[in-house]
Structure formats: C-alpha cells, structure tokens
Amino acid sequence: MFSKKTWIISVAMLAFIVSGCAVVGNAYHEEELGLRKVDLYSEKTVVPDATDYTQAAAGESKLIQRSFENAPPMIPHDIEGMLPITGDYNSCLGCHDPAVAKDVQATPTPLSHLASFRPLTQLGANGEVIKEGKIIRNSTDVLTAMHKREGVSMERYNCSACHVPQSNNEPLVANEFQPDFRSKNGISSSNLIDNLNEGIK
Length: 201
Ligand code: HEC
Ligand code: HEC
Fold this sequence. Notes:
The longest helix is centred in the first third of the chain and has 23 residues, at 4-26. The protein has helices at residues 4-26, 91-96, 101-104; strands at residues 115-116, 121-123, 129-131, 134-135, 147-148. The strands form two sheets. It has a three-stranded antiparallel β-sheet, with no helix packed on it. 16% of the residues lie in helices and 6% in strands. By secondary structure, the chain is mainly alpha-helical. One heme C binds at residues 58-61, 63, 73, 75-77, 79, 82-83, 91-92, 94-96, 104-107, 159-160, 163. One heme C is lined by residues 70, 72-73, 92-93, 96, 107, 109-110, 112-113, 152, 156-159, 161-163, 189-190, 192.
C-alpha cells in the first residue's frame, strides 16, 4: 500500500505535469513568432505598408521632436532631388552649413559637426600606440579629443547616414519608451558638445 505521504507527492507531481502541459497548449508556435501577424513561413507574400514621407518642402515643414536626449533629429521636410550626397554635391550643406543656415531659416549643423573627435594616433618606435601624444594601453582611458575643422567635418559629410525622414505608418508594436530630457529644450535641440566627456574621469 502507498503511504499517505507518497500519495500527496504523487498528486502534487501529477498536478505539476498537467499544468506544464497546459502552458505548452498556450504557447506560441514558431510560425506565429513574426511581428507581421501572418504565418512566418509565408512571409514571401507579405507586402509592407507603403511608405508615406512628408511632402512639405524645406522651409514649410514642422520639426519632429527628438526621440531622446541628443538623438540625431529626423528630417522633417521632403528630400526629393537632394539625394544621393556625392563627393561634389551635398545639397544639405547648401542650407544647413552654419555659414548660410540663418539666411534660409534652416537649423545650422551643431558645433559637434564642426570638429573631428578621432584621437590623433601614431605608432611609437617600439610599436606602442600613442594617442593624443600619450602612450595608451587601454583605449577606454582616452578622453574624447576635439579637433576643430574649418566648417563641417568630413566625418559628418554623409548627413543621411544619421539623419533620415520619417514615414507616417502605424508601428507594428507600440513604443512605450519615455525619454528623459535633462535640459528644458532637449526635446527640440541638442547640446552633445557640452557633455561629451560626461562620466569619464
Ligand atoms: C532648401 C534648403 C534645405 C535643404 C536643401 C535641406 N534642408 Fe533640412 N531643413 C531646412 C529648413 C528650412 C529646416 C527647418 C524646418 C522647415 O522650415 O521646413 C530644415 C530642417 C532639417 C532638420 C531638422 C532639424 C531640427 O532641429 O529638428 C534636419 C535633421 C534636416 N533639415 C536635415 C537635412 C538633410 C540631411 C538634408 C539633405 C538631404 C537637408 N536637410 C536639406 C532646409 C533645408
Ligand atoms: C555620424 C552621425 C551624423 C552625421 C553624419 C550627421 N549628423 Fe547631424 N546630428 C547627429 C547627432 C547625434 C545630432 C544631435 C547631437 C549633436 O548635437 O551632435 C545631430 C544634430 C544635427 C542638427 C540639430 C542641431 C541643433 O541645434 O539641435 C542638425 C541641423 C544636423 N545635425 C544636420 C546635419 C547635416 C546637415 C549633416 C550633413 C552635413 C549631418 N547633420 C551629419 C548625427 C549626425
């Protein structure tokens, strides 16, 4: 005969197994895992929503709020005919270069774009790495160095690597991220140049 204790343990085990099966019953199958609400294995037939970029011309568009402190702002205006940016042609600078921006009422590129932040790096006689004149063993010890450039730095020349227009589509998953802006106007302007070395001793 089973003892009372064995019975209790057996019943508890059975309950555990049954509840385990119930969870498997509610689980998602792999073909349901995609963000698109269709069978993952038939994605070939899925047509994404058409992109819907703003048609407002530069000078007539409404600025888009920054997603987080010092996020690169989205391009709020139509960029038809402005891309691609090539070695000889950068229409963005035609309006956003600080030398002309005020005249066309465009936001001038910020101070962070008028400098290079790459440390001057040399190889010493014995193969040691010298950054900003100091022998460096651990590159995280290097404070961000700033080397001013005449006008916009070539590191920032390809504006569309970081600044893009936004298509007006319903997000597939709601974004619940709430940004914290430490300065009052952080939602509409940037101050990266002031806090680049923040948190570095
Ligand atoms: C004809 C002038 C002109 C050209 C060319 C132009 N812009 Fe603009 N841009 C503006 C103006 C003016 C604004 C301010 C919003 C408005 O009035 O439409 C602006 C706003 C912006 C903003 C938002 C700034 C902020 O503070 O939120 C970004 C980013 C931007 N432009 C990037 C670009 C990029 C990248 C290019 C090149 C692909 C470009 N622009 C080409 C005139 C121009
Ligand atoms: C490597 C990425 C990168 C590239 C390339 C780049 N930007 Fe930016 N841009 C940023 C970021 C990040 C910010 C916000 C932080 C800051 O001020 O640097 C910004 C800010 C700006 C702003 C807002 C200025 C303000 O006062 O708030 C403008 C306008 C702008 N960029 C224009 C341009 C234009 C025009 C180009 C091309 C000539 C360009 N950017 C290239 C990353 C980039």
